[in-house]
Write a structure and sequence with these properties.
single chain; 276 residues; alpha/beta; five-stranded mixed beta sheet; two-stranded antiparallel sheet; 9 helices
């Protein structure tokens, strides 16, 4: 009798709470969402920026095919509808898109599982005399990217150091979005990490910016910041990691050679954002 009374009492309480915030009626059953676990974290932790290395038609075809996908595609010159630029959402943010591939960032692999990818229509680069010549980004494209990125960052509370280039998370395979992407401009808008100039100067300590320094020391700093560095890397692979970092944080010179300014920037970033 007491057990039956307790069940009736619980049912009455639930019925009385049905209209309260946190009780969700699913039709055949109800869900009480008022007690939320503390050990819960958002799936999305990383925002990855890419370029498509193609025109818009080709980019859209590739990103809606079976092998590659991205959450968003922003045209080089976004069309305007009702006075507002139009961008393409190809995958819901709640779903996984295949944009990062084999990747690593701050100790984590499978970055597709924890990220949102934004593709920018951009031809990438051409080779002239064996040297890569990168294409610049269009101002209207970057303007709408800033708005979209801010919303995503706020929605998932993405940390500045987790707004990254495709090259950052896959330096052995990728170079996008390249050295002409305006990382510093975006950082001023609260999008992504950037070192404080006075701290870079402090760590540079009067040295010439391009003065050679110990490569392994720089790689250790980059590894601590978040890049994948392994003992078996050959010289070329080591340079790719350093080059990816330089394209992001020191695009004026991205030779892949370890120098004093690269070292100082890495130290300033570690001081500001901590280790990965």
């Amino acid at each position: 009798m007491k057990g039956r009374l307790a069940i009736l009492l619980i049912a009455a309480l639930l019925a009385g709470c049905a209209s309260e915030t946190g009780i969700v009626d699913k039709g055949d059953y109800k869900v009480d969402t008022r007690r939320q676990a503390q050990a819960a974290y958002p799936r999305v932790k990383v925002l990855v920026i890419h370029y498509t290395a193609d025109d818009f038609t080709g980019s859209l075809a590739t990103l809606t095919d079976q092998n590659v996908s991205s959450h968003y595609l922003i045209p080089d010159t976004p069309p305007v509808s009702g006075g507002k630029p139009v961008i393409w959402q190809l995958v819901p943010e709640s779903e996984l898109a295949w944009h990062a591939g084999v990747s690593f960032w701050r100790g984590a692999t499978r970055i597709n599982d924890t990220s949102i990818g934004i593709e920018l229509e951009n031809k990438g680069y051409t080779r002239q005399g064996g040297v890569k010549q990168f294409y610049p980004f269009n101002a209207p494209q970057i303007s709408v990217l800033e708005k979209l990125a801010k919303e995503i960052i706020n929605r998932y509370q993405i940390q500045p150091q987790n707004v990254v280039a495709h090259a950052d998370i896959a330096p052995q395979r990728k170079v996008d979005p390249g050295p002409l992407f305006p990382w510093q401009q975006l950082a001023k808008q609260g999008i992504g990490a950037w070192p404080d100039a006075q701290r870079v100067a402090f760590y540079l300590n009067g040295r010439s910016p391009y003065e050679p320094v110990d490569t392994l020391n720089v790689l250790d700093l980059l590894s601590r910041y978040g890049y994948q560095v392994t003992p078996e890397m050959n010289t070329e692979q080591q340079q790719r990691v350093i080059r990816a970092f330089q394209m992001h944080f020191r695009p004026a010179q991205y030779s892949g050679v370890a120098d004093a300014q690269t070292q100082a920037i890495a130290q300033a970033l570690l001081e500001k954002y901590g280790q990965g």
